[in-house]
Amino acid sequence: MELKIKKDDTEVSCAISGKLTYQDHNEYRDFLRSCEDLKFSKITIELDNLTLIDSAGMGMLLLTIEKSKDFGCDLSIKNPKGQVLKMIELANISSIVTIEKIKK
Amino acid sequence: MEDAVLFSEIADCKVLIVDDVAVLRTLIKTCLQKAGFTNLITAESGDETLEILDNINPDLIILDIVMPGIDGFEVCRRIRKSSIHSQIPILIQTGMEATQERAAVFEVGANDLISKPINVYELIARVKLQLQNLIMSRKEKAYQERMESELNSARIIQESLLPSAEAISCVEEKLNIKIQNHWKASSELGGDLWGLQYLDEHRLSFFIIDFSGHGVASALNTFRLHTLINESNLDWSDPKTCLQTVNSHLAKVLPPEQFATLFWAVIDLKEDQLTFSSAAAPPVLVGRDGDHNGIEFLDTSGLPVGVISDYKYENNVIDFPKNSFIFVYSDALIESPDEDGAMWEEIGLMDRVKVEAAKGFDQIQPNILKEFLDTAIPPIPDDLTTVSFIRP
Question: Is B180 on the interface with A (CB under 8 A)?
Fold first, then answer.
């Protein structure tokens, strides 16, 4: 997994690439923790280049949803593809958060 | 830094000092005695060392190389080949200066060497180090053995949560339905569980759950669930309320990143129907009317249980006439890599199931499982459960 994080005064975006699995959870939690202190109005998670997600990875997405509620900010999950999209659809994540699919 | 092993733990370790020169034996013994070691034994030759080894069973040997009869190299080789003593640390004392000869000491299996003439402080430091390592690895081994034994006990308890062979055959007989199942944790304990209940003379209810992650933490969640199912008066005849009850309970107790996928179904032989509700379970396979080409995946999408406490699940009803089957599994079946790193995925599973189904619906579960276990690279990375219900 690789995280590319961009922050400005009001928004943070995080592009996750590679595989999001159990072994990434510490690094991902660090990212979420880093959002805690700053008052962002929006978090965007970009999944264009995420190729695989396992159940622990799904847990990280669910944790992000939970945390964004705690922070009182908007959350948008963008462009899941392939296996990641399949998992997100299977878990009906769109019932609790907006999944944006942008056609390229 | 504090020593992980105290001197008091190594002071009475049995040290065997081997040297053909009496003065040197005495010198080493005296040095170690002064340093506080209490359990010192001496031998005069390689032959004597090998003779007394079984009786003495030392914790460390300080061994001279050049001795009449069997020399230190040979003693070291024989000890390393011995089934009982091969792990004894050996400290070789050598007067040899050449690098190659010093390397030979390690080639025959010595743990360390000490140069002659002996430097007292070096001798004591090296003896301490070897014995500390020994005690440390004994402690680690004891810890590991205790953990293994505890996990083994826990595994036996966890297996008792699964439907027993008697319970399964009782349901099979009462309803004239065949049930094939497999459950195996990826480590000692797992996060998978399945359950079964006879409802009445024409209905049975079952579920399969897979907690995120595996190992001890998710295993504890299976215990939690089992307690919940047995303590709350769960209505097994209504899959959606079962999901809702389990979900609202788990949402309260699980941290946000933990969840479970759950599939619950009721097979009704009088109405020829199957009613199911699903929370992100891997797509379930169903074949009906003996039609092996028409086998299909059920739509099992739904929010995993344990995430949002008031999430509403739905019941879906499908036909389930005679000569039908339903095959449920945990995701390890389609997400474990084979030799080439490839996973079956849903499509691979479907292709294989269709092939086996042509031989008979009761061939699916055992043959799919066999192929999986033959081709997946051990250790299987996740817990695996498969259950097949076949209605003749």
Answer: no
Partners of residue A63 in chain B, C-beta under 8 Å? 256-257
B46 touches B61 (CB < 8 A): no
CB contact under 8 A, A63 and B256: yes
Tell me the CA distances in angstroms from B359 to A4, A62, B175, B370, one per residue in order: 51, 42, 23, 15
The DSSP code for B244 is H
Q: Could you tell me if B301 lies within 8 Å of chain A, comparing CB atoms?
A: yes
- Domain parsing of chain A, residue ranges: 2-100
Taking the C-alpha atoms of residue B250 and residue B265, their distance in angstroms, rounded to an integer, is 19
Instruction: Give strand ranges (E) for B48-191.
Output: 60-64, 90-94, 112-115, 178-184
Contacts 24+ apart (CB under 8 A), B77-82: B77/B108, B77/B109, B78/B50, B79/B50, B79/B53, B79/B109, B80/B108, B80/B109, B82/B53
The CATH number corresponding to A2-100 among 3.40.50.1100, 3.30.750.24, 3.90.180.10, 3.20.20.60 equals 3.30.750.24
Q: Which residue matches tokens 């959350």? A: A75
B258–A58 C-beta distance less than 8 A: no
First to last CA, chain B: 70
In the A/B pair of chains, how many CB contacts fall below 8 A? 54
Q: Is B339 helix (H, G, I), strand (E, B) or coil?
A: coil
Helix runs in B110-160, H state only = 120-159
Task: Render each residue's pLDDT in chain B as its tens digit; 392 residues.
Answer: 456 789 999 999 999 999 999 999 999 999 999 999 999 999 999 999 999 999 999 999 999 998 999 999 999 999 999 999 999 999 999 876 677 778 888 999 999 999 888 899 999 999 999 999 999 999 999 999 999 899 889 888 999 999 999 999 999 999 999 999 999 988 778 899 999 999 999 999 999 999 987 678 888 999 989 988 887 789 999 999 999 999 999 999 888 888 999 999 999 999 999 999 999 999 999 999 999 999 999 999 999 999 988 999 999 999 999 999 999 999 999 988 888 888 899 999 999 999 999 999 999 999 999 999 999 888 887 889 999 999 99
Kindly provide the ipTM of the predicted complex, given to two decimals.
0.86
Token pair of A7 as six digits = 């922050």
Q: How far is A89 from chain B (nearest CA, A)?
A: 7
Shortest distance, CA A71 to any CA of chain B (angstroms): 15
Closest CA to A87 of A13, A21, A33: A21
